[in-house]
Inverse folding.
């Protein structure tokens, strides 16, 4: 139960990081 929660939390953090990098990349491409 706890392991699954940690996995979900880790995936959420990874997803957030990926979104940030994608956002920065798109901004760099636009500018």
């Amino acid at each position: 139960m706890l392991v699954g929660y940690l996995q979900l939390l880790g995936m959420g953090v990874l997803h957030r990081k990926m979104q940030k990098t994608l956002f920065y990349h798109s901004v760099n491409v636009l500018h």
The longest helix spans residues 2-30. Residues 20 and 26 are 10 Å apart (CA to CA).
